[in-house]
Structure formats: structure tokens, C-alpha cells
Design goal:
Structural class of chain B: alpha+beta
Strand order of the largest sheet of chain A: 2-1-5-3-4
CATH class of the largest domain in chain A: Alpha Beta
Number of helices of chain B: 16
Oligomer: heterodimer
Number of domains of chain A: 2
Number of strands of chain B: 33
Number of domains of chain B: 3
CATH class of the largest domain in chain B: Alpha Beta
CATH superfamily of the largest domain in chain A: Beta-grasp domain
Number of strands of chain A: 5
CATH topology of the largest domain in chain B: Aldehyde Oxidoreductase, domain 4
Strand content of chain A: 15-25%
Radius of gyration of chain B: 27 Å
Distance between the termini of chain B: 61 Å
Largest sheet of chain B: 7 strands, mixed
Number of helices of chain A: 6
Helix content of chain B: 25-40%
CATH architecture of the largest domain in chain A: Roll
Bound molecules: FE2/S2 (inorganic) cluster
Shape of chain A: globular
Largest sheet of chain A: 5 strands, mixed
Shape of chain B: globular
Chain lengths: ~160, ~750
């Protein structure tokens, strides 16, 4: 056990866990930030995607020690009022079915939109292949990302 | 207008103390789709007045509707309250939705599965809504001293036109809650519907996109421990002994022990099914710590002899208890295929015979015979098995993903030694169901563990635990034969199908009824691998086999595949053969025609290969046309046109979403899905090896059309899934010149 200092969604935390514990379980079990989901534990489904220094990482294979002192953003902190263009677009397109994969999908899409403000279908598919949706909402995800790009452009 | 007796649903009118527990995440209809600047939050009322189990009205006019059935993405949590709101006649923007707990005294049919949630609750929910509206009318009539028949409603408002009197539902709610329940109420005319048939956003969409704790895996209470199980590595194996000396000393570990969930004296039903009843358990403080200790456990396994247990004869409640067995042995896919091939050659159990099929085959000029197979499939819901349980000497509290609570309750009661009404099951939103979550063995595991450690626990499976624990879609095989005469006309049809462990043939479905000489046979092979219902059970294979065969048959006969099916359906409509045909030929033909028109079937496009398929299951009809392209030898479905007849569509856009999802899911399973076995051990245990369809493999466009209908709603979650397999197979044939008889099709492509 060791104390690890974390900065998550702008807030400082200190957790007393084995430094090799994946960030996913620190978020879920110790900090009660359960919007980040467990789907596979082996970097294969994308349910656990969070931002580490602005990059999309799979928190199930990211040791908490790697996040120490760095900026972590989870779905709970993506926007202050739940109004990130992606969140708005997801609502308007009514993307989710069961909803379980969707925070991971949104977190992956957020990095895509920052890198490529107006992505093509192919760019979206490429960026989103790491996120499985068992309910098959991929078409709506594509549509919502295009809509989010529009919303983002309006805001700018 | 229809008059219905409220006695139909007496239990729904019990009034009880208010339910809403602290910490509940409220689901709002208005939240979805509104820009955050759009409107202010609904003010919660000071007081709620309960009109019945499903409906509460606040003094300020806010309406709380309970959604009785478990939600796993099919959106019943929105569509069921829409039905209540319609008959109650309220403004959807004024509604909040609560997920009901499993309370069989208060709610009917709390089962979501078999695409029956809406179908079985359609009239009950309408009646409940209409009854509450009538009680508000009676309260107003009494208050204003006017005849009730002169009172009308507009959303949320009671009106007496003659006197100009008017009141909001909120103002009358207190008085209405005291009114005796009317014996009979009127239901709306379909043409008067204002909410049903429109598109309402998922009431939980805002909660989902903000990562709110909606799932039982997200649940936590004071003093809660985390538990994980270790089940045998192969079907046909059982636990012999455990050595926990290393694991027990690891950080955060509280206890390690073994459990036996379904002891021999229990009367099992179908929904507690499992192959693994004896397992090792690790309990500790946090998920990661328990995962580590689990790996450090040393367990000896041994082959299990034949297991004999007691189980109800059918899945229906109250059916007689019989002796059931699991055969011993370590099974492999190669043996399964060989055994199935053997059975296809032997005579099966006759399920239906029309005319003289044997005679017709004897005098045929040409016989076409094809055999189709499909492997076991894992459901792979994105949320793995988990369940919160807190069991004490007096009662049990459970919270977990579960489609069919009433069944598991009976087993829990026997196993825990608690009366059924002392077992409280809260219904969690599920991260996918697909039939898997109809089975609730995980509730028993969690409850037995909590009973043992005398503390609240959350049982969590790893993905590997989930994928290797069983409850797969059965493996199937079916052989189709068609007899053609010298004029190339179809004179006889024969289907013989079977599976491990169940027989998939539905003998009275199309094309039964359309052919004079018809024979259906079935067979089955027992197995110790646990199987269970999987989205569109049996149909998910039979639709593929039958619709692929009809496609090949049409080609043999030189006919367009849609024309050929329509000819058969015309025969089934005008001069049906036999009496038990379980489909309506004109509705079947209707979806085929609609799909043909909407897809411009007769157009050909360079590089686009098209396949069609249509199927009837779960009381609904669906026809699908896929456009497939080949890119570097890899097939990609670009577009799908679906025509669906599921009666009245309650929530239009949500139904479209479900059809899109079912089609994507079907394409994925048809191309990639399989769970092979070797010596009893599942050969895939996580997504790197179990291939799932991904974003880049999903179609660009799915075009969903509903046949306008005033028929009561039928199934929607499964019917669009079944036909797409064959539509893909038939398009693949066009693209490659090869017929695909064995799922998953990707194997046929890679091996040439
Ligand atoms: S849980 Fe991390 S990628 Fe699946
Ligand atoms: S919405 Fe269910 S897994 Fe994506």
C-alpha cells in the first residue's frame, strides 16, 4: 500500500492502494466514480476509457501509479453541466440502448473531436473501433458525433 | 372505444405506502433532447397521491409513473409509462418515471423477454391508466356536483364544458385517491392516441451520458464486501479441493470458502439453470484485491459423474417436478459436429406431415438437399454478471441484472429458507440482456455468499468468468430437402432439424401451409454444457437455414427470391395446407413487398450484392434486404432495408433504434459469432478472442419501415434479429458464388 495523489475532474484525491491497481478500480471502488465501466479488463472493449492528460486511455490496464499527479478526466467531469457537445448530441440522437458502453464511447469520441473537428465516417469508424457496443448502436454513435461536431462549430 | 373490466388487473390497484427510496436516480421525460438552456427542472411536489401501484400524482400536477418491467436497453422504461400516460391523458413533459421493484402483489407480468413485455402489458397498462383517469373524473364530478359523463379531459386537466369549470389533475389528486376503483373503464380509440406512436426520448438518456450510477455493478452500501467466484474450467468438471494458503494472506482478503448453490433438495425451474453449482468464493474489500487473490487460489478439479436433480417439467410456473440429468463427460466441438451429422441421417421425431411427402420425393425429378449448422454463442452482455445481496435471518435484499424475477424468487426462497415475500428483489437497469439475464443463478450465488459471510456483498464476475460460465445459444443443425417435378415445380418439402440440447424446428411456420407434401422432423442431443435462450431463440438459427435454403431453391427454379416467397405465401393464403399454420400469410407478404419497394429490389448496382430474407417470430413479421460489398476479400454490409409489422408501434424512434441494433447484432453474430469447445472447456474467454462486430463493420445505413397497423403491439426486440443472418448469407453468395451453410460465415471465407 502506498498513498497515491490523483487529480480527477479537477479535484485532488489521495488514495491508499497498491500502486499497481488499475485506475479503473480506483475510480470505481475507492472514489465512487462509477460512470467509467468495466467490460473486459484487457484493453479490448473501451468501456473504461478516461482521459489522462487529454489522451484517451483504457483505465482497466492503466496502473494508478501512472496517473499520479496527472490530470484525469472521467465521464463525470467531461463537462460541468452535462452539456458537452457530445452529451447534447447523444441526447438528441437518443443513442443509448442499455447504455453500459456509452460513457466509454463518449470519452473516446471526445478525443477524436478535439483532434479532428469535422471527422468523416471513416475517421469516426477508425477512432471508435476500440469501443464495443453489444446493443449495436454504432450508426447512432456515428450520427451523434457528426451532430456534436456541428454543435461544437456553432459554439466556436 | 373499448370497455374493459378493471378486475382483469385487480392487484395493480392496491395502494401501498410510497416506495421511492432515498438516493434513487429519477428519470425524467423532459430531460432528453432539450438543450440545457431549454427549460427548468420539474418542481417535485410536496405530496404525492397514489391512485394505484403505477400512478402517483403530485398536488402540483407532476405525474410519477412506475415502469414495472426490467430494462435492458429495449426501452420499456420509456414505452411502458408512455402507455400509462396515454390513457391517463397527461402531458409527457410532466412525467417522471420510476423503476418498480419486483413486487408481484402490485405489478403484473414483470418479465422482460421473448419480446413480450409490451405485448403482455398492453391492455393491463392501458386499463391502469384509464382507471386513474376515471377516478379523477369521478372526483371532479363529486366536487362540482355534475354528472361524470359530462366531464372530459385534456392533458392533465379536467373540464366541465357546460359550467366552464376546470381543474388540474394535481388539484383533484387527493380526492381521486379516495375514490373506489371503478368496475369498468373505457379505453381510447387508437385514432385518438397522442403519445403512443410518437417518438419519446429514453427517460434515462441524460443519466447515461453523465455516467450516473444506474447499474447494479455501480451500487454500493456501507460495509459492503466484494465477492468473486471461481467455477470449473470445463463443463463436466467439478471442484475437488481448494488450497487457499497463499490467497488468504493477500491484502484486503476477508475469507475464502466453497459454496453449493443448488443443493439436491431444491426444485429447480428453467431460470436457475447452471452447470456449475459448486464453486470457490473469495471475499474481500475491493474488486482488484479479490481478483488478485482469485488468481493465487490453487484448486483441484475432477470429472463430475452424471448429475441428477429435480426440475419443473416446463418453464411454466406450477408445472410438475421431474427428474433431470446432466450427462458426464468432456465434450468437444468436433465430436458435436460428428454427432449432429449422424442425427441428420437418422429418422427424427415427426412433428408435422401434410400429404404424402415420402411418395412425392420418390417420384421427384430433382431433389435438392442442404444441411446448415450453427455453433454455440456467448451472449456477451457488456455488463458482466454481478449482484448485490444482503441476507439476514429475517430477510434477503437483492439488486442485480435480471429479466425474470418471479422465477428466481422461488429457488431463492427454497435455498435461503426464507418465505418468498421476505425476499426483496430490486430491478437494476441491465447492461444488456439478450435472453441471458432471464437466468438468475447469480442471485442465488450472491445470496448464499452474503448468508455465509453475514454481510452485504456484491458478487462480480470478470469477463472471463462470464464468458466461460455457460448459458450459451445452443448449437444447431438442420437439413432441408425440396422435391421438384419434371416441370421444375416444387412438389414436396422436408425439414429435419435438431440441436444440442434442443430441437429448433417450429413445424407450423412457413413454408408449412404452402406446400401440399410437407414433412417436419426434429431431434436433440443431450449435453452438460448449459444453454439458454438467446435473442430470438431457435428462430435465430431456423430463419438462417430456412431463408438460405429458399434462396437457393428459388435460384434452382429460376425464380426471383422475393417472387418465389410471395407465390408460396399466396398459396398459404388462398388455399392453405393443414390447419395449424401459425402465421398470417398476408402480413408476411406485406413486409416482403414493403422491403422490395423500399429497397428498389429490382435495381442492380455495380459492386453491390444483395440478399433478402423474411421471418415471422414473436408474433411479428420482418423482411430485410442487405447490400453487401467486398473489400479486399472481406465482406461489409453497407446498407440494410427492414420492413417490420409489429402492430402498433409505441415509441417510434426507440423501435427504430432497436431494429438497427438487432440488425447490427445479427450481422455480427452471423459473420463472427462462435464459442467452440475442447474437452469441455470453452475456447474463448474474452473479446480479444471472441470477435464482436465493431464500429467499422456496422452498416452505413439502416432504413427501417413499419407497416402502418392498428393491431395490438407484438414483439420488437427479437424479430428484426432473426432474418438478417440469411440476408447476409444470400448476399455473400451473390458476392462470392459460394453458399454459406455454416455459421459463422467468416470461417468459410478464410478457409476459402
Ligand atoms: S474494460 Fe478496459 S477496455 Fe474493456
Ligand atoms: S448501448 Fe448497450 S452496449 Fe452499447
Amino acid at each position: 500500500m502506498a498513498t497515491t495523489k490523483l487529480k480527477i475532474n479537477g479535484k485532488e484525491h489521495a488514495v491508499d492502494v497498491d500502486p499497481s491497481t488499475p485506475l479503473l478500480w480506483v475510480l470505481r471502488d475507492h472514489l465512487n466514480l462509477v460512470g467509467t465501466k468495466y467490460g473486459c479488463g484487457v484493453a479490448s472493449c473501451g468501456a473504461c476509457v478516461v482521459h489522462l492528460e487529454g489522451e484517451a486511455v483504457r483505465s482497466c490496464v492503466t496502473k494508478v501509479s501512472r496517473a499520479a499527479g496527472k490530470e484525469v478526466v472521467t465521464i463525470e467531469g467531461l463537462s460541468e453541466n452535462g452539456d458537452h457537445p457530445l452529451q447534447q448530441a447523444w441526447e438528441q440522437v437518443d443513442v443509448p440502448q442499455c447504455g453500459y458502453c456509452q460513457s466509454g464511447q463518449i470519452m473516446s469520441a471526445a478525443v477524436l473531436l478535439r483532434e479532428i473537428p469535422n471527422p468523416t465516417d471513416e475517421e469516426i469508424d477508425l477512432a471508435m473501433t476500440g469501443n464495443i457496443c453489444r446493443c449495436g448502436t454504432y450508426l447512432r454513435i456515428r450520427k451523434a458525433i457528426h451532430l456534436a461536431a456541428e454543435i461544437q462549430n456553432e459554439i466556436k | 372505444m373499448t370497455l374493459v373490466k378493471t378486475t382483469l388487473n385487480r392487484r395493480s390497484f392496491l395502494r401501498a405506502a410510497l416506495l421511492a427510496g432515498g438516493g434513487m436516480v429519477l428519470s425524467f421525460s423532459w430531460m432528453a433532447g432539450c438543450k440545457p438552456s431549454g427549460r427548468k427542472a420539474l418542481e417535485m411536489p410536496e405530496e404525492w397521491f397514489e391512485l394505484n401501484s403505477y400512478i402517483k400524482i403530485g398536488e402540483n400536477g407532476v405525474i410519477s409513473l412506475s415502469s414495472p418491467n426490467p430494462e435492458f436497453g429495449q426501452n420499456v422504461k420509456t414505452s411502458m409509462p408512455m402507455i400509462l400516460a396515454e390513457e391517463l391523458d397527461v402531458d409527457w413533459d410532466n412525467v417522471v418515471v420510476e423503476q418498480a421493484d419486483f413486487l408481484p402483489d402490485r405489478f403484473k407480468n414483470q418479465f422482460t423477454g421473448g419480446s413480450q413485455a409490451i405485448r403482455s402489458n398492453w391492455t393491463p397498462l392501458r386499463t391502469v391508466g384509464a382507471t386513474a383517469r376515471q377516478m379523477l373524473i369521478l372526483a371532479a364530478a363529486k366536487h362540482w356536483n355534475v354528472p361524470a359523463t359530462e366531464i372530459t379531459t385534456e392533458p392533465g386537466i379536467l373540464l366541465h364544458k357546460a359550467s366552464g369549470k376546470q381543474a388540474s389533475y394535481g388539484e383533484m389528486a387527493s380526492a381521486a385517491s379516495q375514490i373506489p376503483i371503478p368496475e369498468e373503464v373505457e379505453l381510447k380509440k387508437v385514432s385518438d392516441f397522442k403519445i403512443i406512436g410518437t417518438s419519446k426520448k429514453n427517460v434515462d438518456v441524460k443519466n447515461i451520458v453523465n455516467g450516473k450510477p444506474l447499474f447494479s455493478l455501480d451500487y454500493k452500501t456501507e460495509g459492503m464486501l466484494t465477492a468473486m467466484i471461481v467455477h470449473p474450467p470445463a463443463f463436466g468438471m467439478q471442484l475437488k479441493s481448494i488450497d487457499d494458503s497463499a490467497a488468504i494472506t493477500m491484502p484486503g482478503i476477508q475469507s475464502i470458502f466453497t459454496i453449493d448453490t443448488l443443493t439436491g433438495d431444491i426444485d429447480q425451474n428453467f431460470f436457475d439453470a447452471t452447470s456449475f453449482t459448486k464453486m470457490a468464493v473469495v471475499v474481500g474489500n475491493s474488486t482488484w484485491e479479490v481478483m488478485q487473490a482469485k488468481k493465487a487460489l490453487k484448486i483441484a478439479w475432477e470429472e463430475e459423474p452424471e448429475r441428477v436433480f429435480r426440475r419443473s417439467a416446463s418453464w411454466m410456473q406450477g408445472s410438475e417436478i421431474i427428474k433431470a440429468t446432466f450427462p458426464p463427460g468432456l465434450e468437444s466441438t468436433d465430436d458435436h459436429l460428428a454427432k449432429m451429422a449422424e442425427f441428420t441421417k437418422k429418422p427424427g421425431q415427426i412433428l408435422r406431415r401434410d400429404g404424402d411427402p415420402e411418395g412425392a420425393f420418390k417420384k421427384a425429378s430433382k431433389i435438392i438437399e442442404r444441411t446448415y449448422t450453427a455453433p454455440f454463442l456467448a451472449h456477451n452482455t457488456m455488463e458482466p454478471v454481478n449482484c448485490f445481496a444482503h441476507v439476514t435471518a429475517e430477510k434477503a435484499e437483492l439488486y442485480g441484472p435480471l429479466q425474470a424475477p418471479e422465477y428466481i424468487n422461488a429457488t431463492l426462497s427454497q435455498r435461503l429458507g426464507l418465505p418468498k415475500d421476505k425476499i426483496h428483489i430490486k430491478l437494476a437497469r441491465m447492461g444488456g440482456g439478450f435472453g441471458l439475464r432471464a437466468y438468475g443463478h447469480h442471485l442465488i450465488e450472491a445470496a448464499v455468499i452474503s448468508q455465509q459471510v453475514k454481510a452485504p456483498v456484491k458478487l462480480v464476475y470478470t469477463r472471463e468468468d462470464e464468458m466461460t460460465a455457460g448459458l450459451y445459444r445452443p448449437a444447431y443443425s438442420a437439413t432441408y430437402r425440396a422435391a421438384l417435378d419434371e416441370n421444375n415445380q416444387l412438389i414436396a418439402f422436408h425439414v429435419k432439424g435438431g440441436g444440442i440440447p434442443e430441437m429448433p424446428v417450429a413445424p407450423h411456420r412457413f413454408p408449412a401451409g404452402a406446400i401440399d407434401n410437407y414433412l417436419a422432423e426434429g431431434w436433440s442431443i443431450t449435453s452438460n454444457i448449459t444453454t439458454g435462450i438467446f435473442r430470438a431463440p431457435r428462430s435465430n438459427f431456423m430463419a438462417c437455414a430456412e431463408q438460405s435454403f429458399l434462396d437457393e431453391l428459388a435460384a434452382e427454379m429460376g425464380k426471383d427470391p422475393i417472387d418465389f416467397r410471395l407465390e408460396l405465401l399466396e398459396r398459404a393464403k388462398t388455399a392453405p395446407v393443414g390447419e395449424n399454420n401459425d402465421y398470417q400469410a398476408d402480413r408476411y407478404a406485406g413486409v416482403l413487398r414493403l422491403a422490395r419497394d423500399k429497397s428498389n429490389w429490382n435495381e442492380t448496382k455495380q459492386g453491390i450484392h444483395r440478399g433478402v430474407s423474411a421471418y415471422f417470430c414473436h408474433n411479428s413479421y420482418v423482411a430485410e434486404v442487405v447490400d453487401l460489398v467486398m473489400k479486399n476479400g472481406t465482406p461489409k454490409v453497407e446498407k440494410v432495408v427492414a420492413a417490420i409489422d409489429c402492430g402498433i408501434v409505441v415509441n417510434k424512434d426507440a423501435a427504430v433504434n432497436m431494429a438497427e441494433g438487432a440488425i447490427v447484432d445479427g450481422i455480427g453474430n452471423a459473420l463472427f459469432g462462435e464459442m467452440p469447445f475442447k474437452d469441455g472447456a470453452p475456447q474463448k474467454n474474452n473479446f480479444p478472442s471472441y470477435r464482436m462486430i465493431r464500429a467499422n463493420e456496422a452498416p452505413k445505413e439502416i432504413d427501417v419501415h413499419f407497416v402502418g397497423s392498428e393491431t395490438d403491439p407484438t414483439g420488437m426486440g427479437e424479430p428484426p434479429f432473426a432474418p438478417v443472418f440469411a440476408a447476409v448469407a444470400n448476399a455473400l453468395y451473390k458476392a462470392t458464388g459460394t453458399r454459406f451453410y455454416n455459421q459463422p460465415f467468416i470461417n468459410g471465407l478464410t478457409t476459402g
